[in-house]
Design brief:
By secondary structure, the protein is of the alpha+beta class. The protein is built from 3 helices and 5 strands; from the N terminus they run H-E-E-E-H-E-H-E. A 5-stranded antiparallel sheet has the order 1-2-3-5-4, with helices on one face. The structure holds adenosine monophosphate.
Length: 124
């Protein structure tokens, strides 16, 4: 399924250019346009799923292929021994801005904190 209003669907369709680093039957991996690490890639399923929170049983195989492609892309950039981070934002407070499931693959330097560093009294 393709969402005609979705940015990453347009990249998958080739209607918007991207710096693709890996492609499989089901997954595209391309460079993030505003990198937050020396290596910052995005792995997206070609099929439109709004976020990782909306994955269903029918998507389990696709999720496996997505993680495999993310790891393969990290390896292609020599990150397998150095380490890297895979992250996927869901919704506003996580900072999701593109509502097409994507894995951020980041590495190439020591990475900063994963999230809020000073929890103060905000733990539920
Ligand atoms: P998120 O904020 O988790 O939804 O991540 C969306 C990511 O998409 C951000 O890191 C953006 O920099 C990236 N992005 C937005 N537009 C493009 C584009 N045309 N090509 C590549 N990456 C993009």
């Amino acid at each position: 399924m393709i969402d005609p209003d979705c940015l990453f669907c347009k990249i998958v369709a080739g209607d918007i250019p991207a710096d693709t680093v890996l492609e499989t039957d089901d997954v595209l991996v391309f460079r993030d346009i505003a990198p937050q690490a020396p290596v910052h890639l995005l792995a997206v399923p070609k099929r439109h799923i709004p976020s990782i929170a909306e994955v269903g049983p029918e998507d389990h195989g696709l999720l496996g292929a997505l993680v495999q492609a993310a790891n393969d892309a990290a390896g292609a950039f020599g990150l397998e021994d150095r380490g890297y981070r895979i992250a996927s934002n869901v919704g506003d407070e996580a900072g999701q801005t593109v509502f097409h499931l994507h894995l951020h693959i980041m590495g190439g330097a020591p990475l900063g904190a994963l999230a809020v560093t000073d929890l103060q009294d905000r733990t539920p």
